[in-house]
């Protein structure tokens, strides 16, 4: 299994030729572009070599600090650093870097940017390995919850302070989830105002699975539903959430345990 995954070239799984934006572009325009194309990031560059990657997290931070998005450029809100991959690197190389450095990955042909590697890209590859394991180690049971009547600003502040990408939205009948992607969609739809109730923009109902689920099934559910967070239940109650990055960590552990030399 480890030998097989070690032969997977990253070029077969990366997202080729990612779109770039210059630092002087208004952040509103960047958000509009990301929502319209369902992107979670934009490469930031004003020349040959990228500066970094604008993600939903930078927008979240700006809102939580009560900054006026109408007055900000991409350069004002900043970007995430990246780690460089070469064309000859493998999926396993990428997984090592992403799990250890917690950074975004860009693929270069010499100095030319040719691709970006996301968690979803890596999960597509790791779903092909044969070993299946429990998710017990990576389930997060410390889940932040909001009422559906809480404001977008309230939710953004919690996510920023707790360094999380979503909050569970509690309703009388069911749970929903409000994520960084939902935040961008809400801003796009409402003239970049943050006083709207999150219940209207949360994804509901929250897609869940029982705690007995294993890694392959969890990855398949996420892929089929185009989601990055899966609620985990035990005895009919929501007890935690597992994210796409959690799944990558679990897959990486599988490879490490199978071949400690890696």
Describe the structure in your own words.
With 262 residues, the protein is an alpha/beta fold. 36% of the residues lie in helices and 22% in strands. It is built from ten helices and 13 strands. The chain has helices spanning 2-6, 27-36, 56-64, 74-77, 91-101, 119-126, 152-162, 180-189, 215-225, 244-258; strands at 15-16, 20-21, 41-44, 52-55, 82-86, 104-109, 112-117, 145-147, 166-170, 175-179, 208-210, 229-234, 237-243. Strands 1-7-6-5 form a four-stranded mixed β-sheet. Strands 2-3-4 form a three-stranded mixed β-sheet. Strands 8-9-10 form a three-stranded mixed β-sheet. A hairpin with a 2-residue loop joins strand 12 and strand 13 (237-243). The chain is flat, with a radius of gyration of 19 Å.
Brief overview:
By secondary structure, this protein is an alpha/beta fold. It has helices at 2-6, 27-36, 56-64, 74-77, 91-101, 119-126, 152-162, 180-189, 215-225, 244-258; strands at residues 15-16, 20-21, 41-44, 52-55, 82-86, 104-109, 112-117, 145-147, 166-170, 175-179, 208-210, 229-234, 237-243.
Outline the fold blueprint.
Layout: H1 2-6, E1 15-16, E2 20-21, H2 27-36, E3 41-44, E4 52-55, H3 56-64, H4 74-77, E5 82-86, H5 91-101, E6 104-109, E7 112-117, H6 119-126, E8 145-147, H7 152-162, E9 166-170, E10 175-179, H8 180-189, E11 208-210, H9 215-225, E12 229-234, E13 237-243, H10 244-258
Parallel strand pairs: 2-3, 5-6, 8-9, 11-12
Antiparallel strand pairs: 1-7, 3-4, 6-7, 9-10, 12-13
């Amino acid at each position: 299994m480890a030998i097989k995954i070690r032969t997977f070239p990253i070029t077969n799984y990366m997202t080729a030729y990612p779109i770039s934006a210059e630092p002087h572009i208004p952040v509103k325009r960047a958000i509009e572009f990301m929502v319209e194309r369902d992107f979670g990031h934009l490469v930031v560059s004003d020349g040959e070599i990228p500066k970094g990657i604008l993600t939903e997290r930078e927008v979240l931070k700006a809102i939580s600090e009560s900054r006026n998005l109408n007055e900000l450029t991409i350069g004002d809100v900043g970007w995430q650093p990246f780690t460089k991959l070469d064309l000859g690197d493998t999926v396993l190389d990428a997984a090592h870097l992403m799990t250890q450095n917690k950074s975004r990955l860009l693929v270069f042909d010499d100095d030319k940017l040719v691709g970006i590697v996301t968690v979803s890209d890596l999960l597509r590859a790791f779903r092909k390995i044969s070993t299946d394991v429990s998710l017990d180690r990576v389930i997060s049971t410390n889940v932040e919850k909001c009422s559906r009547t809480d404001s977008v600003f309230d939710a953004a502040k919690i996510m920023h302070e707790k360094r999380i990408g979503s909050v569970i939205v509690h309703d009388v009948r069911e749970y929903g989830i409000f994520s960084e992607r939902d935040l961008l969609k809400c801003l796009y739809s409402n003239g970049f105002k943050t006083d709207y109730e999150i219940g209207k923009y949360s994804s509901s109902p929250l897609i869940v699975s029982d705690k007995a689920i294993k890694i392959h099934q969890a990855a398949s559910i996420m892929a089929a539903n185009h989601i990055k967070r899966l609620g985990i239940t035990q005895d009919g109650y929501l007890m935690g959430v597992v994210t796409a990055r959690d799944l990558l960590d679990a897959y990486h552990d599988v490879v490490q345990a199978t071949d400690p030399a890696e």
